[in-house]
Amino acid sequence: MASNGNGSVALNGKGGRNGLAKIETHKKHINGICHDDSGPTVKAQTIDELHFLQKKRSAPTTPIERTQTPFATLSEEQRQRQQLNSISASLASLTRESGPKVVKGDPDKKSETQRVVHHDHHIAPTIVVSDSALKFTHVLYNLSPAELYEQAIKYEKGSFITSTGALATLSGAKTGRSPRDKRVVKDHHTENELWWGKGSPNIEMDEHTFMVNRERAVDYLNSLDKVFVNDQFLNWDPENKIKVRIVSARAYHSLFMHNMCIRPNTEELENFGTPDFTIYNAGQFPCNRYTHYMTSSTSIDINLGRREMVILGTQYAGEMKKGLFSVMHYLMPMRHILSLHSGCNIGKDGDVALFFGLSGTGKTTLSTDHNRYLIGDDEHCWSETGVSNIEGGCYAKCIDLSQEKEPDIFNAIRFGTVLENVVFDEHTRQVDYTDKSVTENTRAAYPIEYIPNAMLPCVGPHPKNVILLACDAFGVLPPVSKLNLAQTMYHFISGYTALVAGTEDGIKEPQATFSACFGAAFIMLHPTKYAAMLAEKMQKHGATGWLVNTGWSGGSYGYGSRIKLPYTRKIIDAIHSGSLLNANYKKTEIFGLEIPTEVEGVPSKILEPVNMWSDKKAYKETLLKLAGLFKKNFETFTNYKIGKDSKLTEEIVAAGPTF
Ligand SMILES: Nc1ncnc2c1ncn2[C@@H]1O[C@H](COP(=O)(O)OP(=O)(O)OP(=O)(O)O)[C@@H](O)[C@H]1O
Ligand SMILES: O=C([O-])CC(=O)C(=O)O
Ligand SMILES: [Ca+2]
Ligand SMILES: [Mn+2]
């Protein structure tokens, strides 16, 4: 008996494993009529023919470089050649040959690897000076989820199909982003355009060092048997669509981006042309620590001038998503469009809400709402015409995920979805969402249409409500407060949340985090630029600001408990419906927040934090402590002016806690 590696077992001709007699089936011919109920036999003569019959040929799906010749008049062969030339150009070493020999298809499937690029005659012939130029680079171009599943399961350790059909993967040593390893090229343009220095996420590198890392990544990718290439879009606003190309080494990365970026249709792909931005993801390969500026073996490098990003030394897929988000935080403001780290949904009456907040505060959870249409869960643009999602998918936290509390997200975890770093039963493949053995940051990446009430296309009119989410582990911020414009700006610039570091080893002090614009890791310009745009837009379109604490109540972490999700949902419902706007309010001490006395479906007692603390003295001390942290954080912003109006700036500074 031989095992074929797939777990099935070859049987001998005499019968099954237990030596049972072969079961005979007799064809019964009565009155010349065949009563055999088995179907007709296959038309193939050989097993290869049978396999050939199984697959229908797909339409060509690679883009072409823009030429004078209209696409339609090209022969099939010319098309194929031009399509592959475009990819060859992306993968070119800039110091040696013009571009690698690119072939399409899986190197393991010989019949599919015939289409070699013969370099165009009008390109000067290059002399092959390296071994890498002699070999072929096989390109797996815009594969479908099914094809990517097969690639992942066959070639990537740690890839499995879960009981609901999702692809479970491991991201390797890194299970979260590495913001300290992010570098941005400082050149003549970006030197003046971008925000540099203290507090800025843009750690500088020079052009030359970027090229060193780029070459390292390209050489690594070309040394492989095959690379994955995704050509996709960012931004649902048709006027401001960005074409991105992602070159990566793992099926996991290709499927992740397939889900997270906007998927082009066949026609859009044929007319794709040259990408606006290219990612080289060589995440399995480290950067060289002898290289200037490198402080670890991980480096995520953005070069806005070259419109390229290089990833070395981390396989965490979120780097690609958030790297592109950083790029959008540069490109969009240049077009007077505001980019936002926010979720977004729209009600049946067309009322749009934005949900800002740092990681884990509830953007995905609260924007995914069965009673409303989901525009997006994480990255948006606000232009003159309204809001648009940047992405084509969602990226949900999975820790403690339950079908009961978050049914739409739970049910989206099915065939096509990438499930990162979760733990599952080795036999049933049932996922245990409570298990943090690999990481607490377990994630699911799925196309937005996996949410039943997704808004397609993912655009909407100007927002009516701007909800700032904070997970306050100190337990002193009210579950909801209504903000005036100055307060909204104050809290937007502060970007507060508080989480608890290592949860395993006993009770820890909550850690306050301040991240300007609720996304300091992704912004490229000074935070006040985005804040000014937000203020102007909110003013112009009459949006109301809200602060919602999705964190603790009745004491800090370890003493109180997290506000129940159903209560937060009721609060959000009251904001959407407009009923909260007309509630009775009272002002809190220190933070000066307007809190409602009643919200339908929520016990009134919880609306005022002090009520929930048994130790009132501890409450006051904790409140003052947090207020002090806010004040200290805001010091760096007091010298900046927001907008043309110095009146608003003064109001913003005054909108913080007073004590
Ligand atoms: N009252 C609450 N409100 C919102 N979320 C809650 C609440 N209580 C518990 N949670 C949990 O908090 C987490 C919120 O995470 P979510 O995925 O929405 O974060 P996010 O803001 O989208 O972050 P990221 O930008 O990292 O994706 C979820 O796991 C959710 O179940
Ligand atoms: O980017 C990630 O890894 C997850 C995310 O959405 C965030 O941290 O804001
Ligand atoms: Ca999210
Ligand atoms: Mn996010």
TrEMBL record:
| Record GO biological process | gluconeogenesis
Sorted keywords for this record are: ATP-binding, Cytoplasm, Decarboxylase, Gluconeogenesis, Lyase, Nucleotide-binding
Specify the pathway: Carbohydrate biosynthesis; gluconeogenesis
The UniProt transmembrane annotation reads none
Under Gene3D superfamilies, the record lists:
3.90.228.20, Phosphoenolpyruvate Carboxykinase, domain 1 (3.40.449.10), Phosphoenolpyruvate Carboxykinase, domain 2 (2.170.8.10)
Where is there biased composition of kind Basic and acidic residues? Answer: 103-115
Q: Which GO molecular function, any one, fits this protein according to its record?
A: ATP binding
**Name of this chain's protein:** phosphoenolpyruvate carboxykinase (ATP)
State the organism of origin. Answer: Lupinus angustifolius
Q: What are the leading ranks of the lineage?
A: Eukaryota, Viridiplantae, Streptophyta, Embryophyta, Tracheophyta
